[in-house]
Amino acid sequence: MSRMGAAIRLLIGIAFRVSPWRSTVVLLLAPLLGAASVAQGLALQWMVDGALRQQVTPLTNGAVLLVVVTVIIHQVTAAAADLRTRLQQQVGLEFDRRLMTFFAGRAGLDHYHDPAFLDAATLLRARRGELGNAFAAVVENLNVLARFVAAAVLLVSTSPVLALLPLVALPLALATRRQERLVAEAEHETAELDRQRRDLFSLASDPAAARELRLYRLTDEIADRHRRAFAAVHRVRENARVRGAVAVMLAWTGFVAALLGGLAITLDGVAVGTASPGEAVLVVVLGTRLTTATTSLTQLIAWLRRSLDTAGLYLRLVGERTAAATGGDRDAPSGDIVFEKVSFTYPGGSSAVLDQVDLCLPAGATVALVGANGAGKSTIVALLAGLYQPTAGRISIGGADLADLPLDRWRSRITACFQDFCQFELLLRETVGLGDVRALPDSSAVATALDLAGAQGLVRNLPAGLDTQLGSALPGGVDLSTGQWQKLALARARMRPDAQLVLLDEPAASLDPDTEAALLARYLHPPQQRRTTTVVVSHRLTTVRAADLIVVLDGGRVVEQGTHDELIEQAGRYAEMYALQAAAYARTSS
Ligand SMILES: Nc1ncnc2c1ncn2[C@@H]1O[C@H](COP(=O)(O)OP(=O)(O)OP(=O)(O)O)[C@@H](O)[C@H]1O
């Protein structure tokens, strides 16, 4: 109940924040309209009794009341619905804004490893449209509640026994509530399977997978898995719906029986003269109203419950995981970046992928991280970017613990080209300029960044130069090769020329050898600029041999480090890998 209360408070709070006056009007009008509709029954009672007793005053009063109430209800309902729809959209928009900030604004990536988070996030993404409607559900329920109360009050004035009639709706409401709860539980229970089903759908419709799906003829296999996942999800959810429906049906039977009983009592009263024919009309009208109100109530309660469940999901997801504090304005001091006994296990992982790493990245140096697949190179890059926190040990920058530095400030001092860089399908100038949002409108900064990344030639060949729309799915959009996208990602990383730390994770994986050589020459033999520390992850040892420091990782440990010459001299792991690569290169080029 307290969760429901919190969800209602959240919805009403947001509505008042986005539009106080609309919220006030909508929340006041809903119960007023509900109560006013019952007055139509009263008007009919006056008219019938007035006509039978041949009294003009009650007849006229009844007629006037009926006309006025009907017109007011009609006009005001239309206006209130308009206001409510607009408010509903505003509330939905506010939830979308909050969710985007929540998902994209979280400091690290830990939550993406948490299955419970992923399930809740998938459910919330799929049902987020309901958050705006949830406010409407609250309003409509207020309206129906007012109709019930007003009907009960009027029925008491006729016969106290009849006042019990609205109470018969209670089991119906409870049964409907139970059905919704069962369905919601089934949805939570099957959330993971449903997420897998959606992933399969995305896989089948994702252009990135299109080639392999066709080549390996996987479409049927994927469709089959999707169908099986759907059937399993549907079975559980349908089962819950049917179990709930049985109770709802029984409650309806009870309600209809009570309604007929109430009518019989009143008609009996008319027959023996203890009730007027007008009162019988009132009971018929209110009984009909009660039936329609109950029908709406069952639907509305279902709607309300589901909406509140979605709002509760939002509260659980967002409320319990407030974004890590990134406040403060302390910059990282300049100086060496030092790993002291750093160990790391991915959230939910069972074994350490970095094991007591001791490492010094000298300020201003270019450091190459090399090693076999899975050695831990990208994990070191992720820790340096503050995307994860070490499980043990500490990373310091110029002596200051990275864990104590405001993450936003630290991130503003670094720049990166990640292994799985993002293909922002925007105007080319924006795709690059996003590397420093403040400089986004600055064409010369974008041009310099492109130049530094060796991507000016690419821009010259595009129809609208910097203003070319990227992404073939967009009208007039141009798609690029993976290597060209990578050049733009590298240019993006050049938008912060005064960065303290540059992270390049396989920056040349998609580049041709000439471009790669030219690119790495810029990083490995930087001009006078020695304030920037550069970390390059690469498998191509011939291209990183000029680095100031080469760090060899194996199984999450640093096994060797030194300059190229020193490592060759040591005749260890690096020398062995280097010799193998050089021999392979000599074979392929001869
Ligand atoms: N997101 C993740 N969740 C869980 N484990 C991960 C994740 N990313 C990497 N790992 C594990 O951490 C280990 C180190 O991975 P990492 O990506 O750092 O290696 P790498 O040296 O960069 O490899 P590669 O050369 O293949 O890019 C691997 O064993 C991998 O299975």
From TrEMBL:
Pfam families on file: ABC_tran (PF00005)
Coiled-coil segments: none
Compartments reported by the entry: Cell membrane
Key word Cell membrane present: no
A GO molecular-function annotation: ATP binding
Organism of provenance: Micromonospora polyrhachis
Entry-linked Gene3D superfamilies: ABC transporter type 1, transmembrane domain, P-loop containing nucleotide triphosphate hydrolases
Main subcellular location: membrane
Transmembrane segments: 245-267
Annotated signal sequence range: none
GO CC annotation, single: plasma membrane
SMART domains, sorted: AAA
Membrane topology: Multi-pass membrane protein
Lineage, broadest ranks: Bacteria, Bacillati, Actinomycetota, Actinomycetes, Micromonosporales
Name used for this protein in its record: ATP-binding cassette subfamily B protein
Key word ATP-binding present: yes
Keywords recorded for this protein, A-Z: ATP-binding, Membrane, Nucleotide-binding, Transmembrane, Transmembrane helix
Every ABC transporter domain range: 337-580
